[in-house]
Design goal:
With 382 residues, this protein is an alpha/beta fold. It has twelve helices and twelve strands. The structure holds pyridoxal-5'-phosphate (PLP). The site of pyridoxal-5'-phosphate has 14 residues, from helix 3.
């Protein structure tokens, strides 16, 4: 049997139209966009067009887009850049316990450099409390960084309400929106954020390219020095094929977003109803009122994640325990730990299923049956 890929929150296959566009850029526009001759100008034009299209897609202006190597770099650029730009004003940062490691470990690194970080708790749905955030704000708070949608359980954070709370305060607001782009229409103006991270490879674009939205007037201290690219905010020759690939992936996602959400909801129904029919004991972790449509986090009481993931992989089902960065280690998920407690069964016995463009209902039904059999075997001790 062809293995079934249900780990799209880790990464997605590159869309064939994205590949075609990128190949033609590699072949026909190899120039350095910083060169003044015609070869450079041709590449520059592609970068400019991509920047305009991407900015339009999120309600930003082109000069508010800084191309980066992806989500991790965007998060680092936002958090470190903001911390250093505002360190004379204060050294307190607020985030949550359920952020991606690109945010959490960046905050930890800043703690070693004299910054103080508050890690907000979440409820059992994985959501932060805006009131708790209000109480955590101090006179020396300079930055709040809270993700748009969680990569392990799909829970959406109240970004617009947080932006509203921070309005009128001299506090920057960053959100990691990496998981949201495939299914949520992002408009930075209605969201009210100052900084927003995106990566292409989670929405069928290429790996190694992303952007940081930086609201006009927000100053970040750059930490990569060299040429004057990206208005001196990020030195280094542009990844032109990647930038064009990102533009293409985003254009396709924008055109297909509602259709994708419907598709993922249908796949989720097939997954859950098949598991129910098979009589497996399970619960869905995350927001019962709905989160990101492509992510389903499932708790199977009496199982062990490591053993379960290995057995599923051998049976041709590729899922994950949550964050890809921690897979392969025995640490329980920090997200589920924050939601349910370190000693909770949920933190030790849950897997993440995440859907993508090319998954079919038939595939998901097959995978659900394999999951049911594997879990059944583990629970009965067979
Ligand atoms: C994947 C992911 C990242 C990291 O993005 P890369 O482009 O792989 O560096 C950051 N945040 C979230 C929420 C993610 O899901």
């Amino acid at each position: 049997m062809e293995p079934i890929y249900l780990d799209h929150a880790a990464t997605t296959p590159t869309h064939p139209e994205v590949i075609d566009r990128m190949v033609s850029v590699y072949r026909e526009a190899f120039g350095n966009p910083s060169s003044v001759h015609s070869f450079g100008r041709k590449a520059r034009r592609l970068v400019d067009e991509a920047r305009e299209a991407i900015a339009r897609s999120i309600g930003a202006s082109p000069k508010e887009i800084v191309f980066t190597s992806g989500g991790t770099e965007s998060d680092n650029m936002a958090i470190i850049g903001a911390a250093y730009a505002k360190k004379e004003q204060g050294r307190h940062i607020i985030t949550t316990k359920v952020e991606h490691h690109a945010v959490l470990n960046t905050c930890r690194a800043l703690e070693k450099q004299g910054f103080t970080v508050t890690y907000l708790d979440v409820d059992r749905a994985g959501r932060v409390d805006v009131e708790a955030l209000r109480r955590a704000l101090r006179d020396d708070t300079i930055l709040v960084t809270i993700m748009y949608g969680n990569n392990e359980v799909g829970t959406l954070q109240p970004i617009a309400a947080i932006a509203e709370l921070l309005k009128g305060r001299d506090v920057l607001f960053h959100t990691d929106a990496v998981q949201a782009f495939g299914t949520e229409a992002i408009d930075v103006r209605t969201l009210g954020v100052d900084l927003l991270s995106m990566t292409a490879h989670k929405i069928n674009g290429p790996k190694g390219i992303g952007f940081l939205y930086v609201r006009e007037g927000v100053r970040l201290v750059p930490y990569q020095h060299g040429g004057e690219q990206e208005r001196k905010r990020r030195a280094g020759t542009h990844n032109v094929p990647g930038i064009v690939g990102l533009q293409k992936a985003l254009e396709i996602a924008d055109a297909e977003r509602e259709q994708r959400v419907r598709h993922y909801r249908a796949l989720r129904d097939v997954l859950l109803s098949t598991l129910e029919e098979r009589g497996v004991r399970f619960a869905v972790n995350g927001d019962p009122d709905g989160g990101l449509a492509h992510i389903v986090n499932l708790f199977f009481p009496g199982t062990n994640v490591e053993t379960l993931l290995t057995a599923l992989d051998l049976s041709g089902v590729a899922v994950s325990s949550g964050s890809a960065c921690t897979a392969g280690s025995v640490d329980p998920s920090h997200v589920l730990t924050a939601m349910f407690g370190a000693e909770s069964e949920e933190a030790k016995s849950s897997i993440r299923v995440s859907f993508g463009l090319y998954n079919t209902e038939e595939q998901v039904k097959k995978a659900a049956n394999i999951i049911a059999e594997t879990v059944g075997r583990m629970v009965s001790g067979a």
